[in-house]
């Protein structure tokens, strides 16, 4: 079982996260990431955070860890992923006339 790393927020970080969580125009992924960190900082357990945010345990762990290493800015950007595989020329959609 993973041990929970306590999160302590500075006043400026808390204000910024609360602003993101309350912003109706913010992308929802940013809102729930901010909520995960805020709830963690308030001492709420993983299961309660999962229920409150509708996310999985690994998601809660991921965003806690990202915040600890990269701060608030780490929550607001997605990591780059390698592009998917291109479809081969021999694999065509059904019904295609080519």
Walk me through what this model shows.
By secondary structure, this protein is an all-alpha fold. It has a domain at 28-75. 54% of the residues lie in helices and 0% in strands. Helix 1 packs across helix 2 and helix 2 (28-41) packs across helix 4 (57-75). The chain is elongated and about 55 Å long. The model has no long low-confidence stretch (mean pLDDT 85).
Topology:
Blueprint (H helix, E strand, L loop, with lengths): L10 H12 L5 H14 L4 H8 L3 H19 L23
Helix pairs in contact: 1-2, 2-3, 2-4
Mean pLDDT: 85
Task: Classify the beta-strand content into a percent band.
Answer: under 5%
Q: Helical content, roughly?
A: 40-55%
Q: What structural category characterises the helix and strand content?
A: mainly alpha
- According to DSSP, the number of beta strands is 0
- Name the helix and strand elements from N-terminus to C-terminus, one letter apiece: HHHH
Summarize the main sheet: none
Low-confidence stretches: none
Distance between the termini: 54 Å
Tally of alpha and pi helices: 4
Based on CA atoms alone, the radius of gyration comes out at: 19 Å
Rough outline: elongated
Characteristic terms for this protein:
single chain; 98 residues; mainly alpha
């Amino acid at each position: 079982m993973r041990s929970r790393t306590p999160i302590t927020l500075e006043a400026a970080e808390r204000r910024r996260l609360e602003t993101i969580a309350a912003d109706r125009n913010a992308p929802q992924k940013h809102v729930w990431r901010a909520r995960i960190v805020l709830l963690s900082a308030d001492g709420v357990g993983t299961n309660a955070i999962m229920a409150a945010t509708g996310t999985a345990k690994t998601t809660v762990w991921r965003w806690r860890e990202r915040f600890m290493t990269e701060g608030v800015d780490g929550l607001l950007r997605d990591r780059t992923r390698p592009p998917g595989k291109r479809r081969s020329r021999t694999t065509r959609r059904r019904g295609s006339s080519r």
